[in-house]
Predict the 3D structure of the following.
Amino acid sequence: MQSPRIRDDLSLLEGYHSPQVDVQIRLNTNESPIPPPQQWVEDLSEEIKKVEWNRYPDRLTNQLCNDIAEFHGVDPNMVFAANGSNEVIQSLLLTYGGFGRKASVFEPTYALHSHISAITGTEVIVGECNEDFAIESQTLQKVLEKRPNVLFLCSPNNPTGTVASREFVESAATQCAAVGTLLIVDEAYGEFSDWSAVDLVREGSQIAVTKTFSKTWSMAGIRLGYMIAPQVVVENVRTVVLPYHLDSVKQVAGSLALRHISDMRSRVELLVQERQRMAKKLLELPVQQWPSGANFILFRSVDNAQKTGEDLWEALLDRSILVRNCSSWPKLEGCLRVTIGTPEENDSFLAHLEAILG
């Protein structure tokens, strides 16, 4: 008896995993440390009672897309919602990628861009960021010479926190359009930075912006994301998703969250203030850090601290603090990424880090 063979191109591919360890302070997955408003929880509980569980959900997610469109000031036909922004990215690659097609990324960046590309049989073209983790114009041009079908630009970038300038994204969008490449701007952390590429999306453009409810809306447990893109891109993507792919609870939860915009913005403001406070404190320690426009900071110990990234990660774990070890990622030797937590969690992290390095 022979077992079914996995696709040859997947046989050596490892899954995407983030360590799940029982610790007191979890600062490794960029979740919001602050829960959603209690009123949202109560409203969701009431709305769930009204769900007709024996009926399929709204296939086109009309109400949710209308609410997202109103929030961003776009036409509802320019909105596509899915099970987290990862499903949005997968749907885009199923539509515009696949065997014989190419997707480009700029390392170091969000690992799932390459991972989902590989899963969908899309060849990955890799460009490298410079030492400051910015994408240089000549690097972009060299990548586009290879005529990728899609090009990923993560801003703020995960795990570096780097924010691409508006001028750069506008230029990238123009250059991508000239060669028929779809520019995908991943803005999972967009609300933590000072600008968004959503207002660059218009009919006739070749740019799609992906977003998530996991971070700023404190809804990682719901798994809900969406895309703002020209109507033709949305219509094309709808051809590859499974029928009724987004359940009734997610649709209701997303619409209810959009009634609490001021709460979301207050939460973002608090986390940005905490990020600035942590960055200031890190300046006093023997570590190198990079400017961040997200809800995390990338850092590593300097040479005279005599601590490798693995040493530092394990020392923090021994103190029941879990951060993300990025040491094995491209160009990130020795680097760790710490999510901004509550003020109390941040104080504990900083105190233990200082003690370890001291």
Notes: DSSP finds eleven helices and twelve strands in the chain. The two ends are 60 Å apart (CA to CA). The first strand starts at residue 25 and ends at 27.
